[in-house]
Amino acid sequence: MGDMERINLEQLPRHIAIIMDGNGRWAEEKGHDRLYGHFKGVESVRAVVEAAAELGIKHLTLYAFSTENWERPEEEVTGLMTLLVDTIKKEVPVLNKNNIKLHVIGDTNMLPDKVQKELKKAIADTAQNTGLNLIMALSYSARWELVEAAKRLATEVKKGKIIPEEINQSLFSAYLTTEQFPDPELLIRTGGEQRISNFLLFQIAYAELYFTQLRWPDFGKNDLYDAVVDYQARQRRFGKTGKQVTHGAPGNQHS
Ligand code: IPE
Ligand code: IPE
Ligand code: MG
User: Fold this and answer.
1) Interatomic CA distance for residues 1 and 136, integer angstroms
2) Which residues span the domain enclosing 228?
3) 80, 128 in Cβ contact below 8 A?
4) Of all protein residues, whose CA lies closest to atom 9 belonging to ligand 2?
5) CATH number at residue 108
6) Closest-CA residue to 64 (of 122, 133, 18)
7) Which of 3, 4, 119, 184 is deepest in the core (most CB within 10 A)?
8) What pLDDT band is residue 56 in, cutting at 50, 70 and 90?
9) Does residue 21 belong to any structural domain of this protein?
């Protein structure tokens, strides 16, 4: 089926996170250099962002560059940064047209000045939008984020602003880069690998995982619908029994 009619709009995930993997292999398999794969990957970003906005998804987090990716060959890193600047510049009017608000999570101080500047501008230019929250994970890793949270919490304790006994899951979440967003209910990884690669480790504790062999440049709107349909067929139990989540609370497994 090719359209979004197969999706139950009453049971949408509030937050979808995607590990956009497979650009390099997609290109190499076709005899191109890896950068061409990243270039083609931008089209998939466009398609998926549009599909999520049309469905009425409130949060979409895209893992675009990890802190570990800085270790790639210099020309790939430089190429990716250039692609990033060009894409942000070009897409701001499209984001505004579709009422999409841009956010960035990650160790952005590591990004080249030019990228930081364009990002700041794009975030400010889309700040008034009220539709989809598009969260780009750039120079992001979960262990970096968790250690930062620990450092900041320790500083607050040292200053006497927090007592250790006050620290609970909800307070801890407030020290993560995703503070203002709900946890993802659905995590998609393209490219065929079945691993998390240091992405949102705290936040995906109960996310439904969806792995596809499709390389990211081959992933389109319809593939996002497939993932959402798959998600909607699952029973989310959160440690309870199947009976507990179906009896008395219809539809609750998706709330
Ligand atoms: C994902 O594609 C994009 C980034 C990590 C920047 P890859 O570049 O990892 O592609 P593969 O996994 O090598 O095919
Ligand atoms: C994960 O992909 C990071 C992004 C998609 C940005 P990688 O290609 O870096 O992950 P590994 O190396 O296969 O685990
Ligand atoms: Mg990869």
Assistant:
1) 29
2) 10-140+184-236
3) no
4) 69
5) 3.40.1180.10
6) 18
7) 184
8) very high
9) yes
